[in-house]
Amino acid sequence: MAAKNVNAVVIGAGAGGGIVAKELAEAGLTVLLLERGKWNTPFDDLKDDLRNQRVSVLGAPFGPDDERNPRVVVDAPGRERIVLPSDSEMEYNNNAACVGGGTVSYGAMAWRYMEQDFRMRSTYGSVEGSTLDDWPISYQDLEPYYEKAEWEIGVSGDDSNNIFRAPRKRPLPMPPLPPNREYTILKPAAQRLGFHPFDIPMLRNSVPYGGRVPCMRCRWCVGFACEVNAKNGTQNTVIPKALVTGNCELKTDCMTKEILTDARGRATGVAYYDENDHLQEQTVDIVVVSCGANESARLLLNSKSSLFPNGLGNRYDWVGRNLQGHAYTGACGLFDFEVYDDIGPGASIAICDFNHGNPGLVSGGMLANEFIRLPIEFVGQDQPVVKDWGREHKDFMRQWFKRSIVVYGPVQEMPVFDARVQVDPVVKDHWGIPVCRLSGRRHTNDIHVAEFLSTKAEEWLKEAGAIKTWPQLPDSRLSGGQHQAGTCRMGNDPKTSVVNKDCQVHDVDNLFVIDASVHVTNGGFNPVLTIMANAYRASDILVRNWKGTKFR
């Protein structure tokens, strides 16, 4: 039975969808916000070092659950395997499934992309084996919306010493957190090397802000929910504002099956399974897909009809293509004195000297000290000097855990046409919906950039006093993970993109994709602030067009 018509259904209550729901509801549209996960509280996810990492063999505490949500991974030799959320992140490409999405458990770095990041093809030219291209929008188009995200969601930090940053019109609303010990060790070392260190911008309260308290500096941050609500996500900022309007209804534990269309090719509604696994239909004027790059592509591909036999927006076989994440790289250093002070979140200082302009290479990435590494994570730092078990391993942990610093950062990856999300022809989830089928590999340029950045990280650590260092390097497997992007590319040409510059699906004028799926490239930074800024921008355009009756 179809429910009463609403103006807009927003599918996915994460970084993008939460903002869209709030902007539309405040503009007077009636909104149904559908989320496949739960509305977690910090008390649902207590500080369990083994379980509360984003992906763990003990389960994914922020969703999705194993039993209902398999995927299929095809590796380079063509072998197919069914994987679960509790498998390795590199295998499943997980992102949180809950109200707030990854903003509940993220590290909360709040980066603006650089001007060059929006015109990568113009900067570097054609790259063999890559679909590298420019965005159809510029940094200047996003700048006012970056500012809105920083002030409405709440960002602390000070990037004034970042001489490579794009121009901004307004400073960040909160000062940085006081420096920790790693900061005081790394900053002068960076300056001696001629680098330009600065305080990392963070979606985290350093002072009371938005009616919530400041960060209490605990060690349990990235991979955990904040028990004092000082980490700013959509679940504790814009989604409550959307609900207060009275125009927005949030439904959790609801799995969307498909987007429904009519004989004219317009979206008319969505079919979804409710919390009791009953199939429901919701009629609608506008559909906004904000499920993350894997699940947004999956939903479009599963929404087939006689007019769209290959899925919505997929007339030219671009839905699901160009899946990108970040190839993380850097180095670990050991010191002959204690550098660990148990003051969170740990990550505090960064450089952008190597995001662009690296000789012989395309792209680059920022480098920063890493979030506090809990003991279970330090085990996984790929130490080349000790076994993974036994007395030698325990002695190494006791001696070096508090005497180690990791400098780490994301490589801006090259988009690859065959790095992709498809829907599997055989495997289905709990609800009978075809699951994501992931295949492809990283571009070789990503590995070369990672090797280059790791040498800079080692150089920084040695200048800071490290007596031993070793690189942290990615492999060539398919990327994605928490920073997944690119599968519903934004562009002016319908033959080489899925949505236009307003995030409107080329073939369906009342269907939008508003999340990192539309990113043409993914920057050398955590992408969440760009997701948020683009959600504000696309919502602004959508509302203006709605008021002009374009979609009615």
Q: How would you characterize the overall build of this protein?
A:
By secondary structure, the chain is α/β, with parallel strands linked by helices. The protein has one domain: FAD/NAD(P)-binding domain, CATH 3.50.50.60. Helix content is 22%, strand content 19%. The protein has helices spanning 15-26, 89-92, 120-124, 139-154, 181-192, 238-244, 293-302, 375-378, 390-400, 444-463, 528-547; strands at residues 2-11, 31-34, 71-74, 80-83, 156-158, 198-202, 248-251, 255-261, 267-273, 279-289, 326-334, 349-351, 367-369, 404-412, 420-428, 434-439, 468-472, 511-513. Strand 1 (2-11), helix 1 and strand 2 form a beta-alpha-beta unit. Helix 1 (15-26) packs parallel to helix 6 (238-244) and helix 4 crosses helix 11 (528-547). The longest helix has 20 residues, at 444-463. It starts with a strand and ends in a 5-residue tail after the last helix.
